[in-house]
Amino acid sequence: MSNMASRGPNPDIFNKFIKKLDSLTCSDYYGVSSPGLTCYLNCVIQVLFFTKDFREAVTRSSKSKKSSSSVIDSVLAELFYELQSRTAKTDVLIKRLGISEVWEQRDAAEYLERVLSLSSEEASQMFKGDVSHVTVCRQCQKRNQSSNSFWMLPLAMEDTSHHHSYNVKEGVDAFFQVHSVCGENQVYCKQCSDKRDADIKWEMGRHPGVLTLLLKRFTFNDRLRHYDKLYCNASVPQRLQVEGCTYDLYAIISHLGSLTGGHYTAEIKSFETNNWYRFDDGVVKTIIKRDSSFSSSSAYLLLYRKGSKEPDVMRGRSQQRDHYERRDVSKTPNAPQQQPNKNDDYSKFLNGFLSEDVKHKQEKISDEGVQRRTNVRRRTSSLPSRDPTYTRSEEENRKPPISSKTHGELLKKALEVPRTVAVRRPDKPHWK
């Protein structure tokens, strides 16, 4: 035995063991088993499953009695439920989508749109955005505008080749650039009653919660009169700025092979584990985390999730509200450095707060306001003071605690007085 230990493990057996481990599927999630060549649908299902808001919306809709029988939310909810514990099967969904030829290759973008259009409005609206097509006459500056909804933005790749990498960020910027038309391409202006040179552009009206970009790899060859696939590399950014809105990449649907014999796979970032996974029908594997831009010759659909930053308007209101609260409390004479905690007697807090507020604001309000505020102070004068040395008597301890109804009445009386400082319960902000 000592001789065997000194020689170490057999390298052939060790290498076989390593290969066996590499071949095993080890992941936190499950794949999709489907009949025929419906890999395009499997990728769509996985992307929707890892879109948190969509998953939750179809689950709510499937439990609602008002749910329409024409939507497929109940079928999707059942699929999502299966995916949480085992490999899911798509037979029911394939039937609802009217797919009769399962051995015929289809377009993943087409079926993403189809599934979204058959889902409830609550679930699908996060993928829908609005763009406006704007035309401005150079002669009279007349502006004509028409709005359209979209599921995905198509990015043309015709000008690229095997030796040139297509830049997705530049493609998005080019989509919203101003294009001039003149000469034979002039547009008719109603105000001028004639064809004029014009500037044309697209403007984002409503940003979708999930922005889907379609890389147009399948183009029609006019010379050969058939469709070709473009295999050029695409530089895919992890983060995009689209018309002032930030989006983060979370899913990629890739097409491998040619038009006549291809295969779809999906790479998705989980919102639960924050890891990336590759989904190849029933096989799921963890992959290296994508932190920056990368290049891909097979990326077809790119899905970006809208940034979770607080809107500027709401953030401004929140900062303004906090400013007023901090300013008024800090300027109050003898104000403590900290608010009372949840266990403090609420009547103490209300009485002390109102009394100090009246003292601080008396010189800025009318005589009538002074009288009304004085009445409020008198009504609350019987409550315990805010003195930290104050101790309750035995008689007061035997009294039942102030009910929530009494709290509400006190606040209602206080709110009837024109005030410049917000009264807030320590355990519950007044704006919620």
Automatic annotation (TrEMBL):
Region annotation Disordered: where it falls in the sequence: 311-432
Ranges of biased composition (kind: Polar residues): 331-341, 381-391
Composition bias, Basic and acidic residues: 311-330, 356-371, 406-416
Gene3D superfamilies: Cysteine proteinases (3.90.70.10)
Record-level Gene Ontology MF annotations: cysteine-type deubiquitinase activity
Top-level division of the source organism's lineage: Eukaryota
GO cellular component: cytosol; nucleus
Transmembrane domains' residue ranges: none
Domain USP positions: 30-307
One of the Pfam families matching this protein, by short name: UCH
GO BP terms: protein deubiquitination
Protein name per UniProt: Ubiquitin carboxyl-terminal hydrolase 46-like
